[in-house]
Design goal:
The protein has helices at 31-55, 83-93, 117-129, 131-134, 149-159, and strands at residues 7-8, 11-20, 180-182, 185-187, 192-194, 197-201, 217-227, 233-235, 237-241, 251-258, 261-262, 268-270, 273-277, 283-285. It is an alpha+beta fold and 287 residues long. The strands form four sheets. Strands 1, 2, 5, 6, 7, 10 and 11 form a seven-stranded antiparallel beta sheet that branches.
């Protein structure tokens, strides 16, 4: 394996390399099985993020992409027709509590330009749900099914809501080298500060990938240590967190390299952590 040694100014680039040993056929896993597990975990993560958004009370935008109007400019009532009536039904269908219909004509994806009895009933539900903004200013306590000024104002407020942008990524594999996926965006990993020392992933650090049982070696991660202090900094301990579907005993002989020079003996791997420790100093970062 060709590993380039990088020493630029007071930066030492280190490469983490592991020698992998199969742990038996009973614990082996195929690439397809691992990909399936990763896909399932990603789906669970997305679902949990959606639940978190709901718990935090972040408003969700109605699905208005099918609307051909930008605002409701006229009052609407039963018997009328138009694209604004169709957009009205789309907005009503964006909320389960105010849907025009659950199946058939008027249901989500099957909205029409006709303001019929079902639309009037849905408008009444909508007015009741937003009574403080629609009914109370008019001195009303029940919905009328007539889309007047206060109802149109609420509909226009919903129509103007900009849907959140689609996430740029769901996993680190979706991001370019040197960046990780956080909250749907590819970002440079945060700098880890220490006394006079900063640590970052290098641009050529391996992107998230798959390691299979029986693989000879694997380049796990690459870091740059920058010394901003007036004196050399001695690093005596490095602790990394192991993540994924493997077990602690899957990794054996994990080493830390500077270029082609091995700096450590095999790391201790226990309880999902990889630890390099040496009281005399694992390595020193010069000024």
């Amino acid at each position: 394996m060709s590993i380039t040694k990088r020493i630029i100014s007071s930066i030492i680039s280190l490469t983490l390399v592991a020698v992998l040993v199969p742990v038996g056929n009973a614990q082996a896993i195929t690439v397809e099985e691992l990909k399936a597990q990763i896909e399932e975990l990603t789906k669970q993560l997305v679902a949990l993020q959606q639940q978190l958004t709901e718990l935090e009370g972040t408003p969700t935008s109605p699905v208005v992409s099918a609307c051909t109007i930008t605002s409701f400019d006229r009052n609407l009532k039963q018997g009328m027709k138009g694209e604004d009536v169709k957009c009205l039904q789309i907005l009503l269908n964006s909320d389960e509590e105010t849907q025009v219909a659950t199946t058939g004509t008027g249901s989500p994806g099957k909205e029409t330009t006709n303001f019929g009895p079902k639309t009037k009933t849905a408008v009444i539900k909508f007015q009741k749900k937003h009574a403080e903004e629609i009914l109370t200013p008019l001195g009303l306590t029940t919905g009328t099914g007539f889309v007047g000024p206060t109802t149109r104002a609420k509909l226009n407020a919903l129509l103007a809501v900009t849907p959140p942008p689609a996430p740029a990524c769901t996993t680190n594999a979706d991001c370019p080298a040197g960046k990780v996926c956080q909250n749907g965006a590819c970002v440079v990993p945060a700098v880890l500060p220490s006394t006079g020392l900063t640590v970052t992933l290098t641009e050529d650090t391996p992107v998230t990938g798959t390691i299979v049982a029986g693989q000879a070696t694997a380049d796990l991660a690459r870091f740059s240590f920058t010394n901003g202090d007036a004196n050399p900094v001695k690093v005596t301990k490095i602790v990394l967190k192991r993540v994924g579907v493997s077990g602690d005993d899957t990794l054996e002989n994990v080493y830390l390299f500077e270029g082609n020079t091995r700096l450590t003996d095999a790391a201790s791997v226990s309880q999902n952590t990889i630890t390099f420790a040496n009281t005399a100093g694992v390595f020193t970062v010069p000024v």
